[in-house]
Amino acid sequence: MNEHGEPLSFDGVACGDSRAALTWQAKVLAEADAAAIDGAAIVRNAEKFISDYVALPAYTALPLAIWAMATHGYEAFDAFPYLAVTSPTPRCGKTRLLEVLGLLVKAQQQTANISEAALFRCIEKFRPTLLLDEAETLRGKGERAEWLRGLVNAGNRSSASVIRCVGRDHDPVSFSVYCPKVIACIGAAPETISDRAIVIAMQRRRSSEKIERFIFRDAKAAGEKLAECMQSWLTARTEQIAAAYAQTDLSFLGDRDAEAWQPLFAVLAVADPERVPELADCARALCGAKAAETEDDSLAQRLLSDLQAIWPADTTHLPTADLLARLRAVEDSPWAGEVELTPRRLARMLRPFGIQPRQVRDGGRTIKGYTLAELRPAYDRYLASGCLGNETAKQSA
Fold first, then answer.
1. DSSP for 214-266?
2. Surface-to-core class of residue 217, CB atoms within 10 Å of its CB (0-12 exposed, 13-18 middle, 19+ buried)
3. Ordered DSSP codes for 370-395
4. What is the pLDDT of residues 28-60, one digit of tens each?
5. CB count in 10 Å sphere of residue 30
6. pLDDT, tens digit, for every residue of 140-198?
7. How many percent of the chain have pLDDT more than 90?
8. Residues 6+ apart with CB under 8 A from 111
């Protein structure tokens, strides 16, 4: 609150002179009683602080602001989501987003070329927010990529730890690897990481998108003071957030995504409950985009999706040759050239889903083919829609 009892807000700051604006922000925040600032104002201020410097994709400003805020109390949650910041090419704003978030989060720690031993000891000692830039090594095949992937895959849960032998007697010691992590890379993050993450898919800024010039010394004062406000607010409301966390029901999301988003909804439910529906819209949009990208990256799942799309209405079975011809005709599919889809390979790709070729009737003859009854359980289990999601499939049910 300011001296007149009004919530602090950066909403009225002019966007002309970046240095003047940030000096004003730092001055106002420095004079404020951090514990008295209300949560809704902190969220709005964090959104503006991030958006001033980064051209953000749609639906990401609010989740980013609350995620940064929630890092100051992450230990109260059973699991805490990663941020996976991706881009198709360099110069899309990933590093700048990490720099800006680094001023807001709890105990930021950048980890370029850090060793395995140093990394888990750093987490155990400092309980930081890790900023992993240029994390393309996570997709590599070397030893460092393997241990880093393993550590990151486990480190979103409060119980996550690694055991290492320490000292002359080689005593086994457990080191916690649980902490907030921002993972930035060109291209999609590994699926095991994106499953545990809120994915922020950055794009190169258009000339029409205006942002403030990032001058670190100016941004640092306002950002760190805002971080102090976040920490003070979280500390004073631990019990309310814990109660909101226990009661949060995100049934509109899948289990893994619901677990990731639950801390953000708990914090916002206490800070500004009127904006919870807005956060739900963000969650739906970002989780839907992530599911679509994951589906495209999985060739076997793409095959299931295409089978669902091309299956003709009122047809219970198809001969293998007919099925292959229909798949090769799918626009922009890999089946016509990139992947040599033979009857043998089709059977091999479908076998892990419990689907096998059967003897089916085709006119007056019996030949190898596939049945809709055997495909349906795989659609239910593995496709993002969760069921027969296209009109053709619905008509054939």
1. --HHHHHHHHHHHHHHHHHHHHHTHHHHHHHHHH---TTS-HHHHHHHHHHHH
2. exposed
3. EEHHHHHHHHHHHSTTSS--SHHHHH
4. 454 444 445 789 999 999 999 999 999 999 999
5. 12
6. 666 666 777 777 777 888 888 888 888 888 899 888 889 999 998 888 777 788 889 99
7. 43
8. 119, 122, 130, 131, 132
* 281-338: pLDDT as tens digits: 999 999 988 876 665 556 787 888 899 999 998 888 899 999 999 998 888 778 877 7
Q: Residues in the chain, how many? A: 397
pLDDT tens-place string over residues 54-71:
999 999 999 999 999 999
CA distance 74 to 68: 10
User: How far is 154 from 108, CA to CA, in rounded Å?
Assistant: 20
Give me the residue label for tokens 């619901």. Answer: 258
Q: Is 359 helix (H, G, I), strand (E, B) or coil?
A: strand
Stretch (H or E) spanning 369:
strand 365-371
Q: Kindly write down the DSSP assignment for every residue of 266-277, as one continuous string.
A: HHHHHH-GGGHH
- Residue 81 is which amino acid? P
Q: List, in order, residues 6 or more apart from 315 with CB less than 8 Å away.
A: 372, 396
pLDDT of residue 17: 43
Number of Cα atoms under 13 Å in the Cβ half of residue 44: 15
> Does residue 45 contact residue 226 with C-beta atoms inside 8 Å?
yes
Q: Is the dihedral of CA 53, 55, 61, 63 positive or negative?
A: negative
Q: How far is Cα 234 from Cα 271, in angstroms, rounded to an integer?
A: 9
Enumerate residues 6+ apart whose C-beta is below 8 A from 119: 111, 148, 151
Q: Are 218 and 143 in contact (CB under 8 A)?
A: no
* Widest distance between CA atoms in the chain: 88
Q: What is the DSSP string of 155-194?
A: TTBTT-EEEEEETTTTEEEEEE--S-EEEEEESPPPHHHH
For residue 6, pLDDT beyond 50 = no
**All residues at 6 or more sequence positions from 14 whose CB lies less than 8 Å from its CB, including other chains:** 21
Residue 8 predicted with pLDDT over 50: no
